[in-house]
Structure formats: structure tokens, C-alpha cells
Design goal:
four-stranded antiparallel beta sheet, AAA+_ATPase, ATP-binding, ABC_transporter-like_ATP-bd, Rossmann fold, binds adenosine-5'-triphosphate, ATP binding, 10 helices, 280 residues, alpha/beta, ABC_transporter-like_CS
């Protein structure tokens, strides 16, 4: 189904939109319409529509350089758009007041590519960055919260005082996730969370994301190239190409799509090897 048509187009209810009568009622916590982004003469995204539903894990894929990170950064307000509208939790990000905007930002967490921990801060201090920015909490409470977040992501307590340079790749991802979860967000953005991890580490990280979604009801927006993640934990997949969301659907639905990139990605040699492994 072309994004923005049908699904999620029903009457608004509270935050976001709900889907039509007779369907499972899905609430869009993120709704992008007609988003256009460019740099100089080059348009990266044009008239793009996307819905992300509450408590789903949405996997966002597309060829290299198609604009997946640009879209994520546009939603986060780090890149300016030329046209369109982005609503998060039912609020239009362009018309939100500074206070409303801060309230929205408190409800989302972000894991940037490569973790992006501050190298001059230890893990505990990194996790506390969003707390310092958005909350007025005592140091003691922030320390307790940081330990709680470490536990949530499966890191030992003694990693709190370690520098990012002392952590393995998998630990950096977990510490970054702990920071993304610092404010108990409703929505998390993950930019290639399993890139650079070995298959076992990647599977463990996928598992963690799924468990957190199940336990906390998180909505997960995950940019990924990882077919295993798409297959094992994503409820829905959105494919970016030709400057827009080409198609959305489940992994099985992607296997039926005839668009050339989608076909070669989901039914190419690598993908089929993965399916064969599944069948063994
Ligand atoms: N600040 C910028 N100024 C100019 N061009 C940019 C800027 N940021 C991104 N681009 C361009 O936008 C395009 C999309 O980049 P983006 O990083 O979003 O791709 P991507 O889909 O995330 O790719 P990958 O899968 O390789 O990470 C690229 O051609 C990139 O060079």
C-alpha cells in the first residue's frame, strides 16, 4: 500500500490518528505528509508520506544514500524541510510552541549511528545528558536512574564509570540505548543499531529491542540494513526510494513486491540464503 493512503487516515483521536472502522485501531504517533527536503539543487526527499503506529517496530530500509538518515534528522528537527508537515504525538512540529516542542522531545529518545556517545564523559554521565537537559533532578536520583537504565539494557553496574573507549561495540550500542531510554520515552529512533555487531551480538540486540517494546509499549523507528532484524523483530517495513516511501508492509508482504530494488533486496541471493537458513 502506498504510504498515506487508507491506513491511518481515519478520524483523529487524542494524539495522532486512528485507522478506519473494522480494522485493528492503530494510532499514528508519527505522521509525515508531503515532506520535501533538499540540499542546494538536489532534492533528497520529495512529497514523502509516512505513518508510524504506536508500539510497533517499524524497520526503515532503502539503498545507500536514499535519505534514511536525512528523514530521521528532519523529523528530529536537525535538518530543515522545504515543504510538508510532521506530526508527533498529534502535535505539528512546525507550529508547536517551545514548551510543546520540549515536551515532545522528552517523549522521544535517539540512538544515532555509531552510538555517538560523548567520549569525554563516562557511561553514567552519557546516560544523564538528557536528564540534565530536560529534567530538574538531584544527582542522587540521576545516579539511580542511570543504573536502572544500565540494567534495562543488560549492562553490568560497573560499566557506569567506564569511558566509551573502554567498551566493546556491542556495549557501546547498549550504552547508547540506555541514554536513548533515559527519559522513559514513548518513541525511540534507532539509526542502524546493529551495524558493526557480529551476528550473535546483533541478534541479542534485536532481542533486547523487542523485549523493551513488549515491556514498555515503546514505538520503535529503526533505520536498518539488517535483513535479520527486519525479519525477526519488525512488525512493518517501510522502503525509501525515488525520494519517497515506496511501499510499506510486513516482511512477507515485501516478498511479494515487484519493485526492482525491493525485489532484489528481499528476494536477492542474500535474502534467500537467510530464508533457507530459517527453514533448516
Ligand atoms: N548536510 C548535508 N548537505 C548536503 N548533502 C547531504 C547532507 N546530509 C546528507 N546529504 C546527502 O543526502 C543523501 C542522503 O543521505 P543519507 O545519509 O540520508 O542516506 P542514507 O539513506 O541514510 O544512506 P546510508 O544507508 O548509506 O546510511 C546523500 O546523497 C548525502 O550525501
Amino acid at each position: 500500500m502506498r504510504e498515506g493512503e487508507g491506513e491511518g487516515e481515519g478520524e483523529g483521536e487524542g494524539e495522532g490518528q486512528v485507522s478506519g472502522v473494522g480494522e485493528e485501531r492503530k494510532i499514528a504517533v508519527l505522521k509525515a505528509r508531503g515532506v520535501t527536503v533538499g540540499f542546494g539543487e538536489t532534492l533528497i526527499l520529495e512529497n514523502l508520506d509516512l505513518d508510524v503506529y504506536r508500539s510497533e517496530i517499524l524497520g526503515f530500509v532503502g539503498g545507500s544514500g536514499t535519505g534514511k538518515s536525512v528523514l530521521m534528522r528532519t523529523i528530529l528537527g536537525l535538518v530543515e524541510k522545504r515543504a510538508g508537515k510532521i506530526e508527533v504525538f498529534g502535535d505539528d512540529l512546525d507550529t508547536a510552541t517551545a514548551d510543546e516542542r520540549a515536551a515532545i522531545e522528552r517523549r522521544w529518545g535517539v540512538l544515532f549511528q555509531q552510538g555517538a556517545l560523548f567520549s569525554s564523559l563516562n557511561v553514567r554521565q552519557n546516560i544523564q545528558v538528557p536528564m540534565r537537559e530536560h529534567m530538574n533532578m538531584s544527582q542522587r536520583l540521576m545516579d539511580e536512574m542511570a543504573l536502572l537504565k544500565l540494567e534495562m539494557v543488560g549492562l553490568p553496574r560497573d560499566s557506569a564509570e567506564k569511558a566509551p573507549s573502554e567498551l566493546s561495540g556491542g556495549m557501546i550500542k547498549r550504552a547508547s540505548l540506555a541514554r536513548a531510554l533515559a527519559l522513559d520515552p514513548d518513541l525511540v529512533f534507532l539509526d542502524e543499531p546493529t551495524s558493526g555487531l557480529d551476528p550473535i551480538g546483533a541478534a541479542a540486540f534485536d532481542d533486547l529491542i523487542e523485549r523493551l517494546r513488549d515491556a514498555l509499549g515503546l514505538t520503535v523507528y529503526m533505520v536498518t540494513h539488517d535483513l535479520d532484524s527486519l525479519h525477526s523483530i519488525c512488525d512493518r517495513i517501510a522502503v525509501l526510494g525515488e525520494r519517497r516511501v515506496l511501499v510499506t508492509g510486513t516482511f512477507d508482504e515485501m516478498m511479494q513486491v515487484d519493485q526492482p530494488w525491493v525485489k532484489s533486496y528481499f528476494r536477492g541471493e542474500r535474502a534467500l540464503r537467510r530464508v533457507e537458513q530459517d527453514e533448516v
